[in-house]
From TrEMBL:
Residues forming the catalytic site: 139 (proton donor/acceptor), 166 (schiff-base intermediate with substrate)
GO molecular function terms attached to this record: 3-dehydroquinate dehydratase activity
Organism: Roseburia inulinivorans
Keyword line: Amino-acid biosynthesis, Aromatic amino acid biosynthesis, Lyase, Schiff base
Keyword Cell division (UniProt): no
Catalyses which reaction(s): 3-dehydroquinate = 3-dehydroshikimate + H2O
Alphabetical GO biological process terms: 3,4-dihydroxybenzoate biosynthetic process; amino acid biosynthetic process; aromatic amino acid family biosynthetic process; chorismate biosynthetic process
Positions contributing to 3-dehydroquinate binding: 43-45, 79, 209, 228, 232
Protein name: 3-dehydroquinate dehydratase
Function: Involved in the third step of the chorismate pathway, which leads to the biosynthesis of aromatic amino acids. Catalyzes the cis-dehydration of 3-dehydroquinate (DHQ) and introduces the first double bond of the aromatic ring to yield 3-dehydroshikimate.
Pfam families: DHquinase_I
Length: 249
């Protein structure tokens, strides 16, 4: 997959940096800062925005993003509390925000919490018709499921029509980290046309955020001011490490 001249799914993993600020001015300032950074993808975590129910305020942020995100891939994410985020919306309210994202004309990718949707495949088809590409995601902040379960989750999201599939899990030991990396490699080998993003969270799983080029994870997340998940390293450090690994490989 290629967006804005950047290839997702082969070679060095793309670097995604989330915007986690809570007020409009800080969000826009961070967007403009990251537009000049080494990030390949900038993610707006709208669930951290105190006014995410104010559609006019949301439109103002999108307008600012349209101006400065011309060269960066712009990812829009509303992360619910069930999936480790800060937001809580009724399904129709969430649909309204997704519609705003599509109407903005600046969103390249939209994160969809696949297993929180009643009809996820239908929702993905609708978002595709609106011109958006979809990352189907699932997060487990408590454990690392069995290998068969993780593979099933990835395959179900893939079968649902997602452009990219994402799975984040919490390790209890280093064997859990190895299980995730193994599942990632197997899924990528069996589904070469669907980019996959995986991560083992926390300090124990930090290595999984750096070795995507070896095991197949297409995008890695790093922090600028605020991390969006446990174990995220600082973006300058991650960019340097990814480049070093890429040159060696």
């Amino acid at each position: 997959m290629e967006i804005k001249g950047k290839t997702i799914g082969t070679g060095k993993p793309l670097l995604c940096v989330p915007v986690m600020e809570s007020n409009k001015e800080e969000i826009i300032d961070e967007l403009r800062t990251l537009a000049k950074s080494e990030a390949d993808i900038v993610e707006w975590r709208i669930d951290t925005f105190v006014d995410y129910k104010n559609y006019n305020a949301v439109r103002e942020v999108f307008a600012a993003a349209a101006e400065c995100m011309k060269e960066k891939i712009f990812l829009y994410t509303f992360r619910t509390k069930k999936q480790g985020g800060m937001g809580e919306l009724a399904p129709d309210e969430l649909n309204d925000l997704h519609d705003l994202a599509a109407e903005s004309g600046c969103v390249d990718l939209l994160d969809l919490e696949f297993f929180e949707e009643e009809h996820p495949a239908r929702k993905i088809r609708k978002l595709h018709k609106q011109g958006l590409k979809v990352i189907a995601s699932h997060h487990d902040f408590y454990e690392t499921p069995d290998r068969e379960v993780m593979k099933m989750l990835l395959e179900q999201m893939c079968a649902g029509g997602a452009d990219i599939v994402k799975l984040a899990v919490m390790p209890q030991n280093m064997e859990d980290v190895l299980k995730l990396l193994s599942v990632t490699y197997e899924f990528k080998e069996e589904n070469p046309d669907t980019p996959v993003i995986t991560m083992s969270m926390g300090k124990m799983g930090m290595i999984s955020r750096l070795c995507g080029e070896s095991f197949g994870s297409a995008i890695t997340f790093a922090a600028h001011k605020k991390a969006s998940a446990p174990g995220q390293m600082e973006m300058h450090e991650v960019a340097d490490i990814l480049e070093r690994i890429h040159k060696i490989m």
